[in-house]
Amino acid sequence: MELELQYGESRGYWKYHAPGKWFRQAKAIGKINNERATLLFDSGADVSIVDSTFARKVGCIIDESQRQECVGIGENAYVTEGCTKIKVTLAGSLVYFFHAWVGTLSGQDAILGMDFMVPAGIRLDLAEGTLCLPGEVRIQLSGRRPLYNGKVIPISVDRSLVILVGRSEEIPIRS
Known about the structure:
The chain is mainly β and about 180 residues long. It has three helices and eleven strands; from the N terminus they run H-E-E-E-H-E-E-E-E-E-H-E-E-E. Helix content is about 10%, strand content about 30%.
């Protein structure tokens, strides 16, 4: 099967569950070293980078003896200015201490890549526009609205289910 993908076109799941929805970057507000920060969660990034101006503003000590060459930011290879240890706070009380690279960024105070998200137990739910933290705590991504109303109750199924096409399964809900 070959498909010619057109700009703005939706197929499969997205065509029926989020028609016409345009997906933006996965940004959320958190804190770095107790200072409000715009965080870009990038599942395509192997490393995390904190903006150098922001890092200095929040008192980070930058180790300039270590540098990292990154590709994927602009057309040319990008070299970081050093690395630092940061304190990332999400959902008000979930705190992570983490080593990140320091470099010049625009549009956000930090890019948090897979080197942060996997050990932190964070995943992106782009269909719902949320950042899923451990314990199914969810943070709404910046500029997103839920696709459903407030009457929806998220559930977790404690057993494997195989539901055949056209069939249904009843699951008891516990409070």
